[in-house]
Specification:
The protein is mainly alpha-helical. The chain has 20 helices and three strands. Helix 8 runs parallel beside helix 11. It is globular.
Length: 498
Amino acid sequence: MNLHKTLVAAAVCSAVMITTGCSTTTPTAAQSTVSQTATIDYNQQANQLFDDIFKENVMASPEYQTYLGIKQDYGKWDPMTEAASAQALARSKSQLARLGQLDSNQLDQQTALSLQLFKQALQNEIDDYQWRHYNYPLNQMYGVHSNLPSFLINQHQIDNVSDAKAYISRLQGIPEQINQLDEALKIRAKKGIIAPKFVFPYVISDSQNIIKGAPFTQGQDSPLWADFKAKVAKLDIDATQKQQLLTQAKNALIEQVKPAYQKMIRFVSQLQEVADNRDGVWKFPQGQQFYNNALKRTTTTDLDAQTIHQLGLSEVARIHNEMRQIMQQVNFDGSLAEFFVFMREDPQFYYANDAAGKAAYLKQAKQYISVMESRLDEVFNIKPKASMIVKPVEAFREKSAGKAFYNAPTPDGSRPGTYYANLYDMKAMPSYQMEALAYHEGTPGHHMQIAIAQELEQLPQFRRFGSYTAILKAGDYIVNISLKRWACTKIPTVILAV
């Protein structure tokens, strides 16, 4: 900052020298005040532009609005068309040109960094337009088929009748979303971009789960019907209004959602017939170029694949050596491979695969987080204002979802951060991983990282709500420190009975 002030003062003096023959003497207090004010004003203008561009992108995405707690386009979905992609590209180019008019030399350090980050993000989007089809809109862990119901269940809050009608509107909009999805899959299929064969049974199973149960068939309520009923039941409105909303939602589910999902299942089943078992992007046209670009985007470095692979091998070797030390601490008699088998198969490390076991797992995970939260003041002087809850992954998608993940809170605190634990198969959730998972996804991991970032009001919004891999994964080091310093469960005490 001092260097910057000196440069501004020198610039002012240079301008004065042209008209008055000013020598390079120290500027007057009045001149310094003028230059500082001009600098502040320019920074404010830059930050306002950052927020204006961020708002433009938010307003172009009804779903992102919902994630942020904005209800302007609450009954709409994001378009998935080629036209929408082209519009986004044009918007990025226009925004980059506007940012290009800013002079970074006139900005303070933080604002100059913001400019650099925003320009780079937009340039990446423009450069990556050529790769927009290099993805799987449907895959075994997430995709349109599961994101639509998950979004409604977890993101679409119903606080009044208008919110409920917006939910119904989104139900009615699902057929168009499926039509756009089918077209997107066809475009990719023509380019040879089809998910490997093992993906399709999971997609079909998850899709069938959405239209299983009431009001589609006999049995328990389907996921969306149960969610809508529960949310409407909490509204402070009369019984007649509630029944009207329920009837409208039921009709939308039966008349729009069910046929749309049946159509998608038929198309995906056909696509499965032409899929193969190749599971690497090397099978794509220009797959190597795409892979290299993905590496650069993910790592923010110019490291090539072989260098990264060797780094991974060295890290595995380091971790294996730490595991061998643990084997000695617990007096385990056997090889590292045998230790893996023991840890993977011994029943002492697993909760029962029933309702009671799953409830016990969630209770213990919450306890770990509670203890961690009570000790944060020992190390951290900034803590998130937003709260966090722990939930199991919903039944309709738990078979194919990852073992744990995190969803961010809304900025206004109306929706808490959520750590999801996948309890579909308790044999995949050993107790010795529970504490690390809770800390990684929750506190002091992603929840602290993301919630605190959102609450940094001095930064422009695109940085508060953006995602930077290097920052997100830096949280792993915080979790590692936390485990070594505060871990409730010490591995030696867990295995000493062997």
